[in-house]
Amino acid sequence: MLSAAASGIPRLRWAAPPRHTLARTQWLLLSSSPTRTPAPAAAGPGGLEPPDLPRLAKSARISLSPEEAEEFSPKIQQVVDWFGQLQAVDLECIEPSLRAGTAAGSSLREDRPEPFANRDAIIEALPSYDDPYIKVPRVLNKE
Amino acid sequence: MALTLLRGIRTPTLFRTNVGLFCTARHPPLAHFTTRAGGMQTTEPKAAPKSIQQATKEAAEHKTRGFEAVIGIETHVQLSTITKAFCSCPYNYGSQPNSTVCPTCMGHPGTLPVLNAKVVDCAVKLGLALNCEISMTSKFDRKQYFYPDLPKGYQISQFDIPIAEKGYLDLDLPVEFGGGHRRFGITRVHMEEDAGKLLHSESGSYSQVDLNRAGVPLLEIVSEPDMRTGIEAAEYGAEIQRLVRYLGVGNGNMQEGSLRCDVNVSVRPIGQPEFGTKVEVKNMNSFSEISRAIDYEISRQILLHKESQADQIVQETRLWDESSQKTFTMRKKEGLADYRYFPEPDLPEVVLTSEYIDEIRNSMPELPEAKRRRYENMGLSMQDVIFLANDDNVAHFFDATLERGADAKLAANWIMGDITAYLKNEKLSIDEIKLTPLELSELIASIKNGTINGKIGKEILVELIAKGGTVKSVIEEKDLVQIADPAAIEAIVDQVLADNPKQLEQYRAGKTKLQGFFAGQVMKASKGKASPVLLNKILAEKLKGNQ
C-alpha cells in the first residue's frame, strides 16, 4: 500500500508545469517504479498504471493467495485512482516544499537521556526472548 | 604511531625497499603496487605479511601493468551523542543487551521519532570539515528493507537531499609509502540511524538480536571514486578518523564498529573511460586491513582480466578474511535493491540558518590538514608533520610547548622520541602523563642554555613524566647542573687518564678507538654532568699527549 502511494506521489507533481526544477527532479528520484514515464498529459484518474499486486505483496513480505490477490487488486486500484484524482489539483500558485505540514521552528530534541522506565513490559511483549537477546529465526551471513 | 600499516612501518628494511615502488604510485592513473594475491598461491597464508609483501612485490608490479583500480568508500561514523537519534534512550557501547531500548527505537506502533539536535550539530561540523556545501533545508526518508536487526522494517535515512554534499578531503600520504599530497572528492554526507546487532547462536539454529544500537545516530560519508590504491584508501579512512576525533563527533573506534568502511573496488584497462564492474568489500577492522583487502581484491580482479575471465567479476559483496588474507563472496547482488524510499512522514524537514552554520564554523578546532600545513611552514619534515598532526592530543601538547617559547624542531624531537617511547612502553596517552608542555619547554631551554646536558635532560624527562614537578626543582634536588667549568673537567680527565694507564698506553700505540672509552669514564666520573662538548675537546687534547 505504502509503495503504491509512494510511487503515486511523484506523479502528482507532474501535473503542474515544473517551476522549481531542482526540487521537482529530486522528488522524481524517489519513485522506484521502473516504468516511470514522465507523461503529464496522460495524468488523471485512471492514468496511473495498475498496481502489480504480487510485487507489492512480495515487497511487504505478505503472502497472498490468488483469490486474495484478486480481491485486493481493485481496492488498491482505488487508492491509486485517488492519487490520480489529486493530480487534477491546480498547484500553479503553490510554493513547492520538501515536506508536507512543516511547522517551522525548532522540532529538535536536546541530547538529554531519559531511560524508558517500563523495560519489563517491552521485553514481555517480545514474541521470542532468550535472555538477554531477542530470538529470531536463523539469519545466515555467509553463503 | 597511529598511521596505517603499522606492521610495515615497524620494519625499516621493508619500507626502504618499498619506497621506490610506492613512488611510482604517485601519478594516480597507475597503481604499481599490489600485494599478496600472487604470493598467496605459493606461500602459506599465515606467513608473516612482510615477507609476502616483499616476495610478491615484483610479481605484483608486473601484474598491475596495464590496469588501474578505481576505489570509492562509504564510511559510517557513529556519533558519540549521549542519546539515540530519534528517542531519548542513552547509548553506551557494551551495555547489557536490550537494556537501552524504548518503544520508539523498537518500532512499536504509535511512536514518533524526534530528532536529536546534537546529530545536526555533528553533521554540519563534519560537513564543513569535509569542505561540503551544507543544505539549508534537508529531509529524512525511509529506506525500507526487512532484516531482524531493523525493528521498524525501515531505516530513517536521507535519500535525495543529504545535509551536506560536494566536498573534498585533503591528506598527506606517509613518507614511507612515497609521500605526496592527495585530494579526494566527497559526494555526500547524510544522517541516518544504525540498526541493532545480530548475533548467531552457537548451534546455529537461531539468531539473536541486541537492539541497544538500533536508532544510534550515524553519519554516512560517501567518497567519489577517486582512490587508486589500498594505501590511498586506508589513508582516506585514517583522515576521516582524525577528523571525527578532532571534531569530537565520535570516537572513531574501528574495533567497536564506531567507524566502518565499506569499499567499492573495480579495475579497468588503463585508458578505458568506463569503470569496470565494482565489487564491495567489507569486514575490515583496521586501516591496515583496508589496505591489504583492497590490494588483494585489485590483484584478484586484474588476474581475472588477464586470464580473459573478466566476466567472472560480478557485482557482489565480498568479505575480507584476515586469517587467510583473502576476500570471499558474501552475497551476489540480485539486481538493484528496491528500498522504496519515500519521505519520512513523521519528521519535519531540517531547516538551518546561516547564523547557525556560522556559529558551528566558528566553534570548530583547527583541523588536521590546516595543522599539517602550519607545521610544514615551520620547517618541520613531512614525517614530523604527519606524526604530530595525527593525534589531536599530541598536536595540542606540541602547540602548547611552542607557546611556551620552545623551538619547534627540538620540541618535535622530544615528543616523537623519548616521550612517545615512554607512552608506548607504559601504554599511556600524552594527556595522561604528568609532564606539562611548560616543563618540556623549560627542559629544552635548560639544555639550550647549557644548564644541563642532553643526557641529563633525558633523565629529568623520565622523572617529570612519571612524577611531575618542575625542571628547576629536579635539577636542584639532584644537583644536576652541567659542569661547564673547563678546569673542573680537566681535573676529572686527568684523574681518569691516571687511573687507566694501560688503556692510555694502548691509545698512544694507535688504538684511537679508546677515546670513546675515556669519554665514557669521564662522563661517569662527573655523574653525567660534564658538558659533552668541553669534555671531548679537553679529552682529545690530553690524549694527544700534551702532558
From TrEMBL, chain A:
Major subcellular site: mitochondrion
GO MF terms, alphabetically ordered: ATP binding; glutaminyl-tRNA synthase (glutamine-hydrolyzing) activity
Catalyzed reaction equations: L-glutamyl-tRNA(Gln) + L-glutamine + ATP + H2O = L-glutaminyl-tRNA(Gln) + L-glutamate + ADP + phosphate + H(+)
The keyword Plastid appears for this protein: yes
EC number assigned by the record: 6.3.5.-
GO cellular component assignments: chloroplast; glutamyl-tRNA(Gln) amidotransferase complex; mitochondrion
Enzyme class: ligase
Any one Pfam family match given in the protein's UniProt record, by short name: GatC
Protein's GO biological process: glutaminyl-tRNAGln biosynthesis via transamidation; mitochondrial translation; regulation of translational fidelity
Annotated region (Disordered), positions in chain: 33-52
Record keyword Ribosomal protein present: no
InterPro entries from the UniProt entry: Asp/Glu-ADT_sf_sub_c, GatC
Low complexity: bias regions: 33-43
Keyword terms of this UniProt record: ATP-binding, Chloroplast, Ligase, Mitochondrion, Nucleotide-binding, Plastid, Protein biosynthesis
Family of the protein in this entry: Belongs to the GatC family.
General function of this protein: Allows the formation of correctly charged Gln-tRNA(Gln) through the transamidation of misacylated Glu-tRNA(Gln) in chloroplasts and mitochondria. The reaction takes place in the presence of glutamine and ATP through an activated gamma-phospho-Glu-tRNA(Gln).
The protein's assembly and partners: Subunit of the heterotrimeric GatCAB amidotransferase (AdT) complex, composed of A, B and C subunits.
Identification of the protein by name: Glutamyl-tRNA(Gln) amidotransferase subunit C, chloroplastic/mitochondrial
Organism: Brachypodium distachyon
Taxonomic lineage from the root: Eukaryota, Viridiplantae, Streptophyta, Embryophyta, Tracheophyta
UniProtKB/TrEMBL annotation, chain B:
Keywords from the UniProt entry: ATP-binding, Chloroplast, Ligase, Mitochondrion, Nucleotide-binding, Plastid, Protein biosynthesis
One of the protein's GO biological processes: mitochondrial translation
E.C. code: 6.3.5.-
Catalytic reaction(s) noted: L-glutamyl-tRNA(Gln) + L-glutamine + ATP + H2O = L-glutaminyl-tRNA(Gln) + L-glutamate + ADP + phosphate + H(+); L-aspartyl-tRNA(Asn) + L-glutamine + ATP + H2O = L-asparaginyl-tRNA(Asn) + L-glutamate + ADP + phosphate + 2 H(+)
SMART domains the UniProt entry points to: GatB_Yqey
GO MF, any single term: glutaminyl-tRNA synthase (glutamine-hydrolyzing) activity
Protein family (similarity comment): Belongs to the GatB/GatE family. GatB subfamily.
Protein's name according to its UniProt entry: Glutamyl-tRNA(Gln) amidotransferase subunit B, chloroplastic/mitochondrial
